[in-house]
Structure of NUDIX domain-containing protein:
Amino acid sequence: MDSKQQFLDKSSEAKEIFLPHLSADPVIFGFDNNELKVLLLKMNYRKQWMLPGGYIRKDEDLDEGIVRLLKERAGVAVSYLEEFGVFGKKNRSEFYFEDFDETLFQKQRFITIGFYALYNATTLHPVADEMSETCEWIYLSELPEIELAMDHREIIEKALLTLREKISIKPIGFNLLPEKFTLPELQKLYEAILGKELNRGNFYRKIKNLGILKKLDEQRRGGAYKAPDLYSFDEENYKKALENGLNNW
Amino acid sequence: MDSKQQFLDKSSEAKEIFLPHLSADPVIFGFDNNELKVLLLKMNYRKQWMLPGGYIRKDEDLDEGIVRLLKERAGVAVSYLEEFGVFGKKNRSEFYFEDFDETLFQKQRFITIGFYALYNATTLHPVADEMSETCEWIYLSELPEIELAMDHREIIEKALLTLREKISIKPIGFNLLPEKFTLPELQKLYEAILGKELNRGNFYRKIKNLGILKKLDEQRRGGAYKAPDLYSFDEENYKKALENGLNNW
């Protein structure tokens, strides 16, 4: 079907169902091959990459809406996302729909609310909706090469910045790493989020001081070097640290 | 004038000017007498306390809107506010306007965006708008005693929580303290934000390590004890720390 026609077909139903002027965009980060990636889709129309965002129903809470639309657009079930920013420039999406007239629901001014979540990329299997050619994980290192719709590059950058700030306050990694991991793997995750290399000794000391790790009586087998110790998160202390923060003062 | 009539008078103009379904609420924190306070107004209608919030014009950016409406409602000029949360429960304000019918602009469902800023309370002089009986600073310790409209208590609590998190990442105090201050005064500010007492030795050591303070060749005179040293913020290092964060990793 014609990709323009798909928008036109949705417009009048959208006016009935959704709040005008307000959209939501999920930034789902995954971690794989020591790199962060983000879940994006490419719509049939314009073939630009974008976040799997959408609109909020008149009869649902905002928190419900972001979970529903992520499921609808990307086929992934995520139970909680954290709000990290609101993007409200008046002309942020005006060029995207220039092929349409003002009666199109999707063409009106939208202030969009950004939400993020962190997941182990191997456990989420994206499925594109009918409006999209594909929905997949894209490494952050690939983003400079691809065309992103509207202000979605800025939205992803703000999400990453928020993640960098949060890592000073909250433990991170529970959803991103496999159940058992080595300290070098955890360090790679922190380095990927912070965008810089960390001193190994300092990192080990600080991360152990947080009290969120449990050393297992197992080693990672199969490497060429001495088998490194495996760790898992101490779930109770991890939760406490999530609630109370890492208490720098 | 009848306070209900004031709403009715505003409704049809509001429909022309403002985006529907979207509001913004500023939480302005001040610091005074070793305590945090927040800027609130009491509207003529219902006489409940509330944040000096309002609506966003169709023709302005969201960031412009929050600055404009704060000026209009509270008479204070604040150049920058930071977004900290979005409040999107579908029934968050439905009871507030129960005296009105559905045609009232103000009665529709609003998703509100929370912004905060920190100011030296002695430099901002609030002036109530025509819809309000008063607009003034209220100490956080007084909040349990007063009636707050809608979900504004939850909004203030989330702003305070955000401030507590930010204090681990960013320096705080530049706008809240007078230009020259003593270390005990700075510690009181940190304690007010964190809601707990801090060990003096640890606090002095950590705050000095941040490199954001400049010790002045002056002491606070007039007390009964040994005159304490005065400090000011090293503006350049403070700005750097704001941009780069306090770098815990």
Notes: The helical segments of chain B are 3-17, 62-74, 152-166, 183-194, 200-209, 235-244. The radius of gyration of chain B is 20 Å. Strands of chain B lie at 18-32, 35-43, 49-50, 54-57, 82-87, 111-120, 132-139, 213-219, 229-233.
